Amino acid sequence: MTTYKEDDRTLYDRRGFLHCMAWVGTAAVWTMAGGTLKGMPVELGGGREAKHSMAGGLRFAQISDSHIGFDRPANTDVTETLRLAVAKIKAAPELPAFVLHTGDLTHLSKAAEFDTLQQVMSDLAVPVFYVPGEHDVLDESGKNYLQRFGKNTHGAGWHSFDVQGVHFIGLVNVVNLKAGGLGRLGHEQLDWLENDVKHLKNSTPIVVFAHIPLWSVYPEWGWGTNDSAQALSYLKRFGSVSVLNGHIHQVMQKVEGHVTFHTAMSTAFPQPAPGSAPSPGPMKVEADRLRKVLGIARMSFYDVNHPIAITDMPLEDETRTADGRDHQIMIDNFSFAPHDTAVPIGASVTWTNKDDVPHNVVSTGGQFRSPVLDTDERFSRRFDAPGAYAYYCSLHPRMTGRVVVG
Q1: Residues near 376 by Cβ (< 8 Å), separated by ≥ 6?
Q2: pLDDT tens, 83-130?
Q3: What is the DSSP string of 168-221?
């Protein structure tokens, strides 16, 4: 377990880290405050010192599955799309406290691939914490990975650290995979995990990050971890547990009681939905669609009474609609403007929060629900069926609006 200091000012300690995190996806961004994780924009202010807002919660970003070295038709320049993810983080109005990379940094574990990854990630100018993917441990059980990222870690690279009252745990479930490909933590790491959390109070917010999902997304493709139940049993006494993963190159979420599971997009290439293809693997899409299915995730943590909110952001937003126009709704002064918005079938609508307080967008008919949106965060939805869609802000129910499609 580690705490971090800079210039004798504690930036990442057990009490303070919580208010500085916000962000996850191909790159993802998260904010945590008082024990709750919430999605926040992934863009950062380029060239500026990190700002750590106590009022805004703990903010951090996640990047996953960069696959540096991959050069097939699904994406012939994965280094460039990783650079775009980094640039999206840097373009945000507030720098995240740090970034998590949830594995498959490289495609073949080659030294040159790790060198390229480090060079691109160094442009972030904030701390980056890593766990390996199965593509990072192809050489002598991860020798190249551990030489670069194994300092202050245990075993194959598992570790923990505290930031402003939030306990982060990086797990490794990609070493010695068995037939079928399910992830495995192993007895040594499970014993370490049990001891790692023994000293923590039940009220401590927990964020776990690992490469392969810690829930059974699709075991037929190895999309799960065979001993994850034992790992999660050590965390069941905590009131707030968030589990962040990569590996499947797409966004999926699940909530089980006090535990929120979230998988992130890739910065390299998409993979098919579970069971929708003969096997997993790189999925080729039209060139003009690629950057819309790669991206980042944003996380925010505000307090222990609210669950983590996560916003997934593609590298390129799809807000251009079927009629060639952008349909924008501003959230400002506790109202939606315009209140009524008419759009054609197939159009996309984007809500942007311009208030200084969080809002969300919730369909009264249950068709859609945005994450909590902080200042300047956006939510988009495509409308493919005609009708009138009433919506409101569940945080401030007097705020209402309507989208009419036809």
Answers
A1: 41, 93, 352, 353, 354
A2: 999 998 888 767 788 999 999 999 999 999 999 999 999 999 899 999
A3: EEE----SS--TT--B---HHHHHHHHHHHTTS-TT--EEEE-SS-SS-SBGGG
Question: For strand 327-331 and strand 347-353, is the pairing parallel, antiparallel, or unpaired?
Answer: parallel
Tell me how crowded residue 315 is: count the other CB atoms within 10 A of its CB: 23
Hunting for tokens 């930031």 — which residue is that?
A: 163
Average pLDDT along the chain: 83
Helix (H) or strand (E) holding 55: none
Q: Which domain holds residue 229?
A: 4-314
Residue 322 lies in a domain: no
117 close to 105: Cβ distance less than 8 angstroms: yes
- Same domain? For 116 and 219 the reply is yes
Query: 3-class DSSP state for residue 262?
Result: strand
Of 288, 314, 340, which residue sits at a domain end?
A: 314
Residues 245 and 356 in one domain: no
Give the CB-side neighbour count of residue 403, counting CA atoms within 13 A. Answer: 30
Cis, peptide link before residue 307, omega less than 30° from 0: no
Instruction: Give the C-alpha separation, 392 to 370, whole Å.
Output: 11
Backbone angles phi, psi at 390, to 5 degrees: -80, 145
* Alpha-carbon span 323 to 96, nearest angstrom: 36
Same domain, 74 and 223: yes
- Cα angle 337, 316, 324; round to 5: 55
End-of-domain residue from the set 314, 339, 366:
314
CATH code, domain with 38: 3.60.21.10
- List C-alpha distances in Å: 335 to 322, 329, 368: 26, 10, 19
Q: Is 321 among the domain residues?
A: no
What total of structural domains would you count in the chain?
A: 2
- pLDDT at residue number 37: 56
Residues 398, 341 share a domain: yes
Query: Has residue 320 been placed in a domain?
Result: no
Spatial separation of the C-alpha atoms in residues 88 and 86, rounded to whole Å: 5
Which domain CATH number covers 394? 2.60.40.420
pTM of the model: 0.71
pLDDT score of 29: 59
Contacts of residue 333, defined as CB under 8 A and 6 or more positions apart, other chains included, come to 355
Q: Are residues 238 and 370 in the same domain?
A: no
Distance CA 182, CA 245 (A): 14
